[in-house]
Amino acid sequence: xxxxxxxxxxxxxxxxxxxxxxxxxxxxxxxxxxxxxxxxxxxxxxxxxxxxxxxxxxxxxxxxxxxxxxxxxxxxxxxxxxxxxxxxxxxxxxxxxxxxxxxxxxxxxxxxxxxxxxxxxxxxxxxxxxxxxxxxxxxxxxxxxxxxxxxxxxxxxxxxxxxxxxxx
Length: 168
Description:
mainly alpha
């Protein structure tokens, strides 16, 4: 079984050795020989980029959890809109699903791939927000339902922006 950081910048050489016949596993290798070691050993001497990645990773986990929580509310709105406009309902569901998938995928990327996934997630979230506001404008749902949900989606978009464009 590979460690959680395999293939990322923090992966240790012992993992490659452990995958070969007769190689040592990371749990038996000492930290200096390429084992996992403690969190402080992993970050000792690490670049700021690596430390920022770990910090922003927890932020991306929070935004993905919030997107999944909001999926229930978006689904409830979509069920109310469905009898009136199937196309808008389908678009709303697909856009929010895309936002969740892209945010989740982006949390495990670096550089331009991370930026692209987070920007795609922001675009899909904005698309969902627009569909909800359109449903309210057409009279399919109440304003009291649409505006609080739109504000929570805005908060997700803002957090996705911060994850895509961290302070330097």
